[in-house]
Design goal:
about 80 residues, alpha+beta, three-stranded antiparallel beta sheet, 1 helix, 3 strands, about 20% strand
């Protein structure tokens, strides 16, 4: 089994943008959603952390040989 990519995620509200970041290292954000009238930034950020934090740890692990420097997770449904 691969290594864990991140621990639990959290939201960092920066006013015009919302960061999604590891709770243990909020300065190292992994996604940024810009607040705009035509885009529900907070809802997207909340959905991202809810889906990620609800996943069992084994589903957050990288497969053997995967490049940990480029984490790619697609939660679009």
């Amino acid at each position: 089994m691969g290594s864990i990519m991140w621990g639990p995620l959290t939201i960092i509200d920066q006013g015009q943008v919302i960061w999604v970041a590891p709770a243990a290292d909020p300065e190292d954000w992994i996604a940024c959603f810009e607040r705009r009238p035509d885009f529900p930034a907070l809802e997207w950020a909340l959905r991202m952390i809810d889906l990620y934090n609800a996943a069992p740890l084994r589903e957050r692990a990288l497969p053997a040989g995967a490049d940990a420097s480029v984490p790619v997770v697609d939660y679009h449904a």
